[in-house]
Amino acid sequence: MTDEKPHFMEHPEVVELIDNSFPELVGESDRGAVIIGADIVDSVLYKLFDELISSEVSKKKRKRLFDYTGPLGTFSSKNDMALAVGYINKKTHDCINVLREIRNDAAHSNVRFDIKSQQDRIREMYNVGDGVPIAVRNWAFEHLMKRFVTVLMATKDIGERPIFKTLEECLDYIVENPDSTKAIDEKLPVHEFSLGLILLCAFIIHQKESCLSERKH
After folding, report:
1. Residues spanned by the domain of 122
2. Rama region for 3: left / alpha / beta (φ>0; ψ in -120 to 50; rest)
3. pTM (global) more than 0.85
4. Is residue 161 part of a domain?
5. Residue 216 lies in a domain
6. What is the CATH number of the domain that holds 139?
7. For residue range 40-89, what is the model confidence (pLDDT) as tens digits?
């Protein structure tokens, strides 16, 4: 009998991202979500190096590596170095570069930044394997619908009675109410971006754990 390894999405660092970072991202403006999201991936890369760099490297030298002028001082340099030393694969590296491009556009654009207009690039950002874009979009839709239904089911009338008696009534209302479907459509892109970004982080963390496991053997 062999012990099954937990799914990489169940890693404590990934669970923390889902529990803490995801609500923060979907609560931001489109521009804010992208900029904060890029910072999150940068932090995940920092942790990758911090755990994989030899323990023989002193604290002072380690700090120099991550100084702005050091070899690991920028988001771009961390990404390139992680690929160069084999900590991440080429696909992950390419996905991170797409995120960097989106982040730069969001940070430097003088006009309103809209995640929906970046849909194709966002799907490139988290496309780490076959079928992933469809899976993430479905995940985002299901997550958003669950939140929407939870709010509606908790809504009460003036007499403090639930407006919807059954889940079926609630779902019928959403389908038949244009304002509800419009609200879901407007919120879906940032949910898709946020979950896709967390998936990208999960792949980086998974590759970090693989490197650590190889060292033990």
Report:
1. 14-211
2. beta
3. yes
4. yes
5. no
6. 1.20.120.330
7. 999 999 999 999 998 899 989 999 999 988 999 999 999 999 999 999 99
